[in-house]
Amino acid sequence: MTSPSRNPLELLGQIDLEALGRLSQKVDLPALLGTASRLSDGQLKQLSRLLDRGNRPPRALPEPDGDFYGQLDDLTEEQQVVRLRVRGFMEERVAPIMNEYWSRDEFPRHLIPELRALDLPRRVWNEDGTHKPDATLMEGLITLEFCRVDVSTAVFFGVHTGLAFASIALGGSAQQKAEWLPKMLDLEAIGAFGLTEPEGGSQVSQGMRTTCQRDGDTWILNGEKKWIGNSTFSDFTVIWARDVDTGEVRGFIVRAGTPGYRVQKIAGKIALRMVENGQITLEGCRVPESDRLQEVRGWRTTAEVLRLTRAGVAWQGVGCALGAYELALKYAQTREQFGKPIGAFQLIQNHLVHMLGNVTTTLSLCLRLSQMADAGLMRDEHAALAKVVTAARCRETVALARETFGGNGILLEYLVAKHFADTEAIYSYEGTNEINTLVVGRAVTGLSAFV
Ligand SMILES: Cc1cc2nc3c(=O)[nH]c(=O)nc-3n(C[C@H](O)[C@H](O)[C@H](O)COP(=O)(O)OP(=O)(O)OC[C@H]3O[C@@H](n4cnc5c(N)ncnc54)[C@H](O)[C@@H]3O)c2cc1C
């Protein structure tokens, strides 16, 4: 602002009389001038600063970035390339359509060929079913970038590349691996993983009701599976069943279209609606002995698969929280109330800083967990603690993010509502909060509290 003249005549020359006339129609000008002339020097300085602020161009605000400590700056070039490739795909291809598919309870299957082109599974696994040296970290980074925009896409990938692939990689014969793994790496054959049952969630290891019985060179499967992601369109589902004769848990590759195998999509979910979860019925379903996973060593193999994938679910919590935080920050910088961006209010900053703390600490936790897994040091309880902590911190973060949006926070179009709802599923699958807590509790006390 140019400094006003002290000479009364020059001062009169500087005054815009038309503007003064307009102002006098709105306020009592003599009274206003009288009040201004009685202001103290300090009050005048404050007023002058206020007027000056109104004339300045708006300051550029920082771009939202949930990686506050730059923890992802230390990645290798390949890890960065893959991460940014996933980010681009999610922002350009998934974000524009995800609300529509989420609302319709449908997975956008037309995106599978585009996902194939990203060549992600081969960044994690080799064709023979062994892991790449940085497999857990790479999978975590991919998951993080999926979930930053949409958790359902991460679940599609995690069920196929994690649960289903690992079942064959750990439990399959050389021949089974050669038949399925290359096709799975290229997303030419899509897999699902059928463990949970209507009556057997947390206790499925002890109370598995689905049965298998040998009959010559085939097995007969009977029972039900619930919540099986991708199973409505997968080429096969790995079905876990208890051997009627020996009591042992066995795994089978059940191909889509096998007589006696029926899948019904579960409707009415309030979370992860873009994931197609199936309820599977097996009625006298005959599977050849050649499709029994030959190297499965009872429940031990199933548990090993779950341990491998639990780290990925912990990463889901980080990605989802990070996405919600960045959305909330952007909204707080732009949404104005009482003449200011709501991000200028102390209570809103408190929400944002709390969210950022959660994102930062859980990101550190998962980076360390992946490092341990890739070094062969991760035990069940390590993955379980990460799942417990990230899911809980994510739940807190998405709630604060949603709150930051006020009423708009419950509208799908503002995006944060989907993160809010999806977190409820993260919280409960791949071992509930309680079950993972019991796993950690048993490890640290040496005493089992499982009933
Ligand atoms: C969206 C979604 C996708 C899924 N995808 C798959 C999939 O692809 N394949 C698959 O096989 N499964 C899948 N699941 C199933 C998932 O793994 C189970 O939901 C989970 O294991 C919990 O089982 P449950 O839902 O039957 O809960 P329950 O086991 O019935 O538990 C209910 C409550 O009781 C608590 N509880 C149970 N036992 C104990 C105990 N001993 N001590 C203390 N508390 C206890 C639990 O923590 C929970 O709070 C999916 C689930 C969801 C929601």
From TrEMBL:
Family of the protein in this entry: Belongs to the acyl-CoA dehydrogenase family.
Superkingdom to which the source organism belongs: Bacteria
Cross-referenced Pfam families: Acyl-CoA_dh_1, Acyl-CoA_dh_M, Acyl-CoA_dh_N
GO BP annotations, alphabetical order: fatty acid beta-oxidation
Keyword Flavoprotein applies: yes
Domain Acyl-CoA dehydrogenase/oxidase N-terminal span(s) in chain numbering: 76-186
Entries under InterPro entries matching the protein: ACX4-like, Acyl-CoA_DH_CS, Acyl-CoA_Oxase/DH_mid-dom, Acyl-CoA_Oxase/DH_mid-dom_sf, AcylCo_DH-like_C, AcylCo_DH/oxidase_C, AcylCoA_DH/ox_N, AcylCoA_DH/ox_N_sf
Residues covered by the Acyl-CoA dehydrogenase/oxidase C-terminal domain: 297-444
Cofactor annotation: FAD
Top EC class of this enzyme: oxidoreductase
GO MF entry, a single one: glutaryl-CoA dehydrogenase activity
EC numbers: 1.3.8.6
Keywords from the UniProt entry: FAD, Flavoprotein, Oxidoreductase
Acyl-CoA oxidase/dehydrogenase middle domain: residues covered: 192-284
Protein name: Acyl-CoA dehydrogenase
